[in-house]
Amino acid sequence: VRTLTLGLIPADGIGREVIPAAQQVLNALPSSYQLAFQFKHCEAGFEHFQQHGTALPQQTIDVLRQECDGALFGAVSSPSHKVAGYSSPIVALRKHLDLYANVRPVISTTTGAGEAAMGEKAVDMLIIRENTECLYIKKERQFTDSDGQVKAIAERLITQGASERAGRMAFRMALARQAVREKQPVDQRRWTGPPKVTIVHKSNVLSITDGLWRESIRHVYENTPEFRDQIALEEQLVDSMVYRMFREPEVFDVVVAPNLYGDILSDGAAALVGSLGLVPSANVGDNFVMGEPVHGSAPDIAGQHKANPIAAIRSAALLLENIGLSQPASAIYQAVDTTLRKGFRTPDLGGTATTEEVTEAVCKHLQ
Ligand code: NAD
Ligand code: MN
């Protein structure tokens, strides 16, 4: 039996409901997978900031770094106005642990009959969001100009190195997805062409920053025969990317985008498959993986047993998958699909099931 030590950081709002749900599902994995879990409960979040003056205690960083094989993060309630001394713990954690790519699979769930149960189209795309730079370096300033105008400026950082490693991750994952597809019957494959990577940018306007992003990824592609020979590469300007993604999401395989575009595109893509409450992510670095649902803390439904736990449960599976444990991961994905097909759905999917009922159904279908 292999024991995995996982940090759990529920943070705020529904993070405190969906992370325990994911934990419950991990604990319900049948013993045949030879996995045991030790969980380390870690503090972070806006509420923690209000009570203790810090959103990300050093102890949380130390425990994750020194004691954990991976982690699961819930969501944080970052306010929309500036609060002195506060900054988002998730953005900081991604930096501290050098989790440079956020991997977001967006997949529609089909019913037994083959039609899409949630959302209209057969979507099976993987969005790779660069996770360390772009506008998220938060170098903003405000000042009053000599003409009396109040101005605000944000710096946007793009580096060749970060762009190249995000691109390399996208190409590697495109090949990995292809390897998985090859084991599936042809009629069950949603993507039947060669592996494809779409670079998202806005180089027609931001020719220096997005230009560097685009050229760095193209450089990796052109100089790596393994990628060049097996993967089709295309580009899409971010605005028309949104248009195409809503009209024909089935044409996308792997999509790689700078931090902010990737954030926005993946929330949008979640609408295509039925709910933000379904879409998982993993923050991936070379030495650590942290699963995290794409959604936020959903204060509008927190504490009401309405939160859909599936995004967090799938994030736990994605975490396992990214540390090389693909069998227990696919068992969880399948248990989730069965649960949805059998009609256990929270209100965001038009159902009446509670967070707890959906979680218990997933655990039951794992057995
Ligand atoms: P949100 O994702 O929290 O909610 C958007 C909508 O989706 C809401 O109507 C919500 O009820 C619904 N929703 C989200 N997750 C759901 C789930 N699991 N089940 C059912 N319904 C779900 O986004 P928001 O409202 O824009 O932001 C709320 C707070 O979350 C803000 O403070 C924001 O800063 C924070 N946030 C945090 C993260 C993160 O921690 N990574 C990401 C996004 C937003
Ligand atoms: Mn987001």
Automatic annotation (TrEMBL):
Its cofactor is Mg(2+). The keyword Lipid biosynthesis does not apply. Residues 5-362 form the Isopropylmalate dehydrogenase-like domain. Gene3D superfamilies: Isopropylmalate Dehydrogenase. InterPro entries: IsoCit/isopropylmalate_DH_CS (IPR019818), IsoPropMal-DH-like_dom (IPR024084). Keywords: Magnesium, Metal-binding, NAD, Oxidoreductase. GO terms for molecular function: homoisocitrate dehydrogenase activity; isocitrate dehydrogenase (NAD+) activity; magnesium ion binding; NAD binding. Belongs to the isocitrate and isopropylmalate dehydrogenases family. This is Isopropylmalate dehydrogenase-like domain-containing protein. It comes from Dimargaris cristalligena. The lineage of its organism: Eukaryota, Fungi, Fungi incertae sedis, Zoopagomycota, Kickxellomycotina.
